[in-house]
Amino acid sequence: MTSTRARRSAFRVALLTALTALAACTFSDRSEERDSPKPSRAVTAALRTVERSTDGAESARVRSTTTVGSALSMKAHGTLAWHDGLTGALTITYTGGTTAETMRRLGTTSMQARYLPDAYYARMGEAFAEKADGKHWIKYAYEDLERLAGSSGADLADQMRGTVPHTSVKLLLSSTDVRKVGEETVSGERTTRYSGTVRVAGAAPQTVDIWVDDRNLLVKKVEKGRTATGQLTQTAYYSDYGVKAAVEKPPAGDTADLEELLEEGALGGTS
Q1: What is the pTM of this model?
Q2: Which neighbouring-strand residues pair with 194?
């Protein structure tokens, strides 16, 4: 492969890297149903209360760390809202792994991400703008992901739309071994911890732990599981429920569309 082709190939990979890194922020909420013993009614009732309370809060501040084997290490912080579809803004920083190396070669290890109900937008660095007619943002429309990448694209879209905190509670409600672990202190607050194993279609079993405050709001979650590229671990903290999380679309003149970028010949093509 010539150096020009290699640079173009790396650049195209980086576009999808930015996408899959954000999707790695959460597991899909499409769990498998199994004929197994059910958790106690008291635990199930408590989790349903947490799900309703967290869902009803409609927005929160979030900070998280995620690792996926040797492929990815990242941290994120910002706000998310889920009253009318997913909206919010996160700052994503790649701190290690092959993904960070790829992004570093392209001139950035940190990017802004804006979630809107129909798409999310990622602000790339100057190296991206130089190859995209001066545009700094990529638009990832969920329907484009499903069309361009088939079932895998649909999975990514579902995961990205499922980053809100009550998704973890839904996962635990599908667990057959979920249990109340006990009382623990998180960020100075007294919380109740619940833990369970979740089996997601097409993936290895995953463990989900959540910590809930006395208002029945999720304040921490830890999700762990095996992926094709190694062990996945994510820890997230939620606070300031009800925080304002209004988000605007980036300027159209500064935004490139994923579908157009990946068309044959875009960004110089692959030849």
Answers
A1: 0.83
A2: 180, 210
